Amino acid sequence: MHSIEVRAEHTYGVHIGGHFQGALEEVSQNHERVLLIANPLVYEKFSLAHAIAQLGNVELFLTPDGEAQKSVHVTEEIWKKCGSAGLTRSDAIVALGGGATTDLSGFVAATWLRGIDWYAIPTTLAAMVDASIGGKTGINAEAGKNLIGAFHSPRSVFIDLQFLTSLSDREIGRAH
Q: What's this model's pTM, rounded to 2 decimal places?
């Protein structure tokens, strides 16, 4: 595995080449409770039910797909889940998905209890090189895209290269 250090409001690592299950296990060992935010496509494609069941301290929130998840309504539903799960300042959120999921999850983490730890496990090329790195988080408003947000860098980014093999040529940027 290769690691790159990113300096923002705090220093964090971008770890390239590990397996997302190991990253999820590592996060769950370092926090009493973890809220995993993913969309149903990622949940089903990568058999997350088994991984979550083995960890025991991971709650799941399934989002709508794509930009539809970056709404005030979905954000409010996740805040309710944070409350019912009892997330405290020592707990964490994990984003497993594309750029919309990392934007949303980072924003929820920035605003829950005025900021809790979050970790990004990006599953698309755009999320790996942009959305999960740098701390730009946000949701959409009726007036436009990404108008509500905060800068809140993740504690770590875990890039599992196996996700790239599941992407279409268009998503990877290859000519047809």
A: 0.93
